[in-house]
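A favour, since you know our structure tokens better than I do. Just paste the record in under my message, thanks.
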Amino acid sequence: MRPDPHFLRGGQGGFGLVAAMFVIIVVAGAVAAMARMSETQNATSRMAIQQARAYQAARAGIEWGIHRALAGESCSDTFTLEGFAVAVQCDTGAAVSLPEEGRSPRFVSLRASAQYASPGSPDHVYRQLSAVVEKDD
């Protein structure tokens, strides 16, 4: 009489396959989570760089406006700088009389904003800076 082949294997048939599938699924989930984390970190880094660029574009607008205001030229304008829409506005106040110093300076208020992409876009960044300069007449 021959031994029964099912009896020799015991009740362990197929358990290795279930364990291997479990390990594969867990490893695949970990790889997917790491890929998603990497993508999020890249997007955050890109936005931080764009925000820094927007700040520098607004700062360039302020410096341009200060130069124009001190030269006695119009300093309200809009222009494009490396993909950023920069808007500069300036308001000249009334002259302030300083009799003890013998002069009448004016204060020029400047505001520059830099914007990349349209509001609601995932790439949208916006920065606004303001400054006040004293101009002698």
In short: Strands lie at 77-81, 84-92, 105-116, 125-136. The chain is about 45% helix and 30% strand.
